[in-house]
Structure formats: C-alpha cells, structure tokens
Amino acid sequence: MPIDPTQPYDNANIFAKILRGEIPCNRVYEDEWALAFEDINPQAEIHTLVIPKGAYVSWDDFSARANAEEIAGFVRAVGMVARDKGLVEPGYRLLANTGVHGGQEVPHLHVHLFGGQPLGPMILRR
Ligand code: 5GP
After folding, report:
1. In angstroms, what is the span from residue 71 Cα to ligand 1's centroid?
2. Domain ranges of the chain
3. What is the pLDDT of residues 12-28, one digit of tens each?
4. Which of 27, 35, 71, 93 is the most interior residue, by most CB within 10 Å?
C-alpha cells in the first residue's frame, strides 16, 4: 500500500530497522550519510536501494528539511554506488517514488538504482 507522504517519520519502518542493524540487508556501500543495499525483490538485473542515514520520510521531506551536508553526502553516495557497480557506461536509472501517485511503500526515503540491462521506457502508459 502506498504511504501517506504527510505522515511523521515512523521509527518502526523496515529501512529504519535495517539502519539500526535489527534486520539484515545485503549491504553494498555505507558511509556517514548513506547506506546502500540490494533490493529484496529486484526489478532489474541490478536493483540497489540507497537511503540516507537521517530520518526522512520521502524525497519531499529530505529536500525540504535535510541540511546541505546531508544532501551532498547522500547524492555523492548514490553516484559512488553507480560508479562502483560499473554502471556509468552503459547507463542506469534512478527513481525515488514519492507519495501515493509515486507508489512509495516504505516511509524512509530511498533511491532505487536500476541497471545491468536496457531499462525500457520511463513510464508504461496504461
Ligand atoms: P517503494 O515502492 O517504497 O519505492 O520501494 C520499496 C522497495 O523496498 C521495494 O522495491 C521493495 O522490494 C524493497 N523492500 C521492501 N522491504 C525490504 C526489505 O526488507 N529489504 C530489502 N532489501 N528491500 C526491501
């Protein structure tokens, strides 16, 4: 179920538990600002999630409240993971689902990093 994007941060969400080490993840990168791990239900050959260390519900919340260091650290981490995975050539896709229309299900900001194959059209029109 998509989340309500206006809700306060829920410390019990699954990615908060991963950040606290309460449930395992297949970690691919971690620094002061971000954690990256493989998606449990990959939608492409490579499907990695990158999340900020701070408690932010969504891209909207993060872009409004995070400080410049957090934003820079997170954006650099996303780029680093893509480079480490050798995705710059031939390319990759980033996605941050936000709110109901975006279909966001986990209420901790995450950027999906897709690659390893041609990714097709950006949006499937119904
Ligand atoms: P959203 O729809 O919120 O943008 O994406 C949530 C993503 O989190 C989905 O791709 C889903 O497969 C992934 N996911 C949900 N629970 C877990 C989990 O416990 N571990 C990992 N690694 N990924 C998860």
Report:
1. 22
2. 14-115
3. 999 999 999 999 999 99
4. 35
